[in-house]
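About this split. The held-out portion is used to measure sequence recovery: a designer receives only the structure tokens and must propose an amino acid at every position. Recovery is the fraction of positions where the proposal matches the reference. Here is one held-out target exactly as it appears in the evaluation file.
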């Protein structure tokens, strides 16, 4: 199995001699635009562990955030914080952003798990 380059020119990098960034030598840096993911049935325990961690981090706020987004198409940190009853005024914005990180991650994990269970695999690319 080799490493190829495709586009306006096509070819194969020399095995053990040439790295994938060899064209950088000619004055233009290559850009990685995607991360590729390939989940299999054997990854289910790790996916479920990740989902459990997300749920733990969200705690009592998970239901409140879910309810908020069911009733709102957009949000501001303040509107969300007020709606989920965050009391700490000093750190309200920071806490809201942290909760949203875990909530978004949970949503992704649930999609991955559902896909793997339905198809026995889940492959996708994520833009950088």
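Reference sequence for scoring:
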């Amino acid at each position: 199995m080799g490493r190829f380059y495709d586009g306006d020119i096509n070819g194969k990098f020399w095995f053990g001699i040439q790295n994938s960034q060899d064209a950088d030598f000619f004055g233009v840096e290559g850009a990685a635009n995607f991360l590729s993911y390939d989940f299999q049935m054997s990854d289910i325990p790790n996916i479920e562990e990740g989902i459990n961690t997300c749920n733990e981090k969200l705690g009592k706020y998970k239901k409140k955030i879910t309810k908020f987004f069911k009733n709102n198409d957009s949000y501001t940190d303040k509107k969300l914080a007020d709606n989920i009853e965050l009391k700490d005024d000093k750190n309200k914005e920071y806490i809201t952003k942290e909760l949203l990180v875990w909530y978004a991650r949970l949503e992704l994990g649930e999609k991955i798990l559902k896909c793997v269970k339905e198809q026995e695999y889940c492959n996708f690319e994520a833009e950088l």
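Annotator remark: The two ends are 25 Å apart (CA to CA).
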